[in-house]
Structures are given as C-alpha cells and as structure tokens.
Specification:
Strand 16 and strand 17 form a beta hairpin. The protein folds into two domains: 220 residues, P-loop containing nucleotide triphosphate hydrolases (Rossmann fold, 3-Layer(aba) Sandwich); 78 residues, no CATH class. The longest helix is centred in the middle third of the chain and has 18 residues. 26% of the residues lie in helices and 34% in strands. The strands form four sheets. It has a six-stranded mixed beta sheet with strand order 6-7-8-3-9-10, with helices on both faces. The protein has a five-stranded antiparallel beta sheet with strand order 15-14-13-17-16, with no helix packed on it. It is an alpha+beta fold and 328 residues long. Bound molecules: adenosine-5'-triphosphate. InterPro entries: AAA+_ATPase (IPR003593), ABC_SmlMolc_Importer (IPR050093), ABC_transporter-like_ATP-bd (IPR003439), ABC_transporter-like_CS (IPR017871), ABC_transpr_FbpC (IPR015853), P-loop_NTPase (IPR027417). It comes from Deinococcus caeni.
Length: 328
C-alpha cells in the first residue's frame, strides 16, 4: 500500500507586498491526521502563509498542493480547505445549522444530506440544541465552535485555523484544547494552526514550525523543539531566559530542567518574584545570572539570600547567537 499524499505540501512559497518580503521560500508538509502549529512573532508572515494556502493571496512563486492536487492557481472555493479565520465570520442572516450546512451545500450536496452533515459536525464540537439560533444570539465561545463545525462539515482533507480560540477566556480555552485534540485525531484531516499561544501549540500540535521574518527557522516534533531549540533566537522566542554569552557568536543555553536547586555550591540570589506555583529567583552563578522558579518546597533550600544550585551539564547546550535583527 502507498501512503496517502500529505494533506498539504508547500514548496518554496514566496510572497511580497511592495518592498516587504512577507514569505521567503517556505516549504512545509502537513500529513493527513497531523496537526502542525506555525509559531512566530507578530508580522513574521504566519497569516500570509495561511492566506496563500487558502487561496486568499496568490504567491509570487512556489506551489501549494492539497491532498495531492496542485491548487496554486485555483480560487479559494475550489480548494477544498476548511477555514477557521478570525476575519472569516459566520453569515449573520443564516441560522447555526444553515451556516454549518453551507459548505456541503456549495459543494453540491442536497439539503437533507448537507443538514445531516451539519448536525454531525455540531455534535462533534459539542453544540447540540443551538441549530436554530442566529450568530448574534451566540456567546463568543459558541460562535467559535460553530466556525469550527462549519470547517469540519466540509469534510476537507485540510483545516486551516488562525488563532481559533482568541475570543475565549482561559477556562474555555483549556476546555476546548482538550476537545480539539481528540476531535482532530478523530476526523483524520491535516491541520495547520497559527497561534500566539504556546500552550495551545504545545497541547494541540504534534509538530511545530517556527517562523522568523518570512522564513521557517526550525521545524520539528513539538517537545523536541522546546527541548532543543536550534538557536538563541528560537530559545528566546520560546520563553527561555538562561542564555549566557559563550564566546563570540555563541550562547550557553541552560534549560530550567537542568537546574538542581539545593545541590552543590551556594550562590547569591539577586532577584525574587512571586510566580505561579512558587517563587522566581535569579541566582548569580559563576556562568552568569540563572533564573528559575522554585516550588514552595524547593524554596526551603534558600539560605538567607543564597541558594545552592547545581547544573546538570548533560542538559546544557551551545547555541548559535542569532538575535541581532534581520532585515524586514
Ligand atoms: N495586504 C498586505 N499589504 C501589505 N503588507 C502586508 C499585507 N499583508 C501582510 N503584510 C505585511 O507582511 C508581513 C507579514 O504579515 P502577516 O500578517 O503574515 O504576519 P503575522 O505573522 O501573521 O502577524 P500577526 O501575528 O501580527 O498576525 C508584515 O510585515 C505585514 O505588514
């Protein structure tokens, strides 16, 4: 048996807006059944990549292949891609059921079949009983789930999600994160997710693609990227703070997981701050300042204004220093 083609294959996508090179040579595959999160700072080109895949922007060069079909020259409606975009709102004049049935209808399904598919999709996102409501009568969280159901009902091999939970409060996000992970596994579509929220990326995506100034700078299994960032810039972007100078062009990356409070030599503590789950301290180690969060129990290892701190050297990495600005 041959493997199914990837849900999405991007090859050397380039896209400029006037003098701004928004996307520079992006190549990426998303396998069927896989979720890939595209992460990067504001303005790095994430939305442009998604819009190129959706057909809302035409790339200057490169190809977009969806489930084995070259769609580069096709309009959005001919691509068979499910979209959940912030600016891709629900139709206000249609009911919830009408909104979700719209995709199958446009693709030629009869009314009965389309509505049956819509009911299935609404059940998947756990929204029964709201079929007759208008979008204006929904909460933000309900509206986002309807948008998801609308994308799922298309039966597309590829789903594109741009900040799908941005309108939700933290409690709803946590709830939906769990649900979405199971849902994506069940429907078997490839998912390309753009998010600013690292927790969302970490919990939903099997792989991460980290983007900087129009280019992918690291692509890998999610936990692997967090454990082994390719450079100082990636580490800093992922929230790592213990990046100490280590000769010209290099840094010494000390992940928090490699720090052993209460072990070895005592060092002065230069900063304290209350943090979620304990206290965040900065220790003036011989290598340089090292910051870590101590649990209430570990904080017991503080001796006045010093802390014994060992470093598990097997966890320490030397990374290229690439944090100077790149041209925009
Ligand atoms: N239609 C457009 N016309 C001109 N410039 C654009 C257009 N769309 C995007 N850009 C520029 O292209 C670059 C990439 O923008 P894009 O929206 O893809 O970034 P992003 O990573 O999605 O940002 P954010 O996280 O803030 O949404 C930015 O410099 C942006 O100003």
């Amino acid at each position: 048996m041959t493997d199914p083609p990837p849900a999405l294959s991007l090859r050397d996508i380039q896209k400029s807006f006037g003098a701004v090179q928004a996307v520079r040579g992006v190549s990426l595959d998303v396998a069927a059944g896989e979720t890939v999160a595209l992460l990067g700072p504001s303005g790095c080109g994430k939305s442009t990549v998604l819009r190129v895949v959706a057909g809302l922007e035409r790339p200057d060069s490169g190809t977009v292949t969806v489930a084995g079909r070259d769609v580069t020259a096709l309009p959005p409606e001919a691509r068979h891609v499910g979209l959940v975009f912030q600016d891709y709102a629900l139709f206000p004049h249609l009911s919830v059921l009408g909104n979700v049935a719209y995709g199958p209808r446009v693709r030629g399904a009869g009314r009965g079949v389309a509505e049956a598919r819509a009911r299935e999709a609404l059940a998947l996102v756990d929204l029964p009983g709201l079929e007759a409501r208008r979008p204006a009568q929904l909460s933000g969280g309900q509206a986002q789930r309807v948008a998801l159901a609308r994308a799922l009902a298309t039966g597309s091999p590829l789903l594109l999600l741009d900040e799908p939970m941005s309108n939700l409060d933290e409690r709803l996000r946590a709830e939906l994160r769990e649900g979405l992970r199971a849902l994506f596994a069940r429907v078997g579509a490839g998912v390309l997710l753009v998010t600013h929220d690292q927790r969302e990326a970490r919990s939903l995506a099997g792989r991460l693609a980290v983007m900087r100034a129009g280019e992918l700078v690291q692509v890998g299994m999610t936990e692997e990227v967090f454990a082994r960032p390719a450079s100082a810039w990636v580490a800093a972007f992922l929230g790592e703070v213990n990046l100490l100078p280590d000769g010209p062009g290099w840094v010494r990356f000390v992940p928090e997981g490699a720090l052993r409070p209460g072990v070895g030599e005592a060092w002065p503590v230069s900063a304290w701050q209350a943090a979620e789950g304990g206290v965040r301290v900065t220790v003036e180690h011989a290598w340089g300042p090292l910051t870590l969060t101590l649990s209430a129990r570990e904080a017991g290892a503080l001796e006045g204004s010093t802390l014994r701190l060992g470093v598990d050297e097997a966890g320490v990495r030397r990374l290229p220093e690439d944090r100077r600005p790149v041209r925009g």
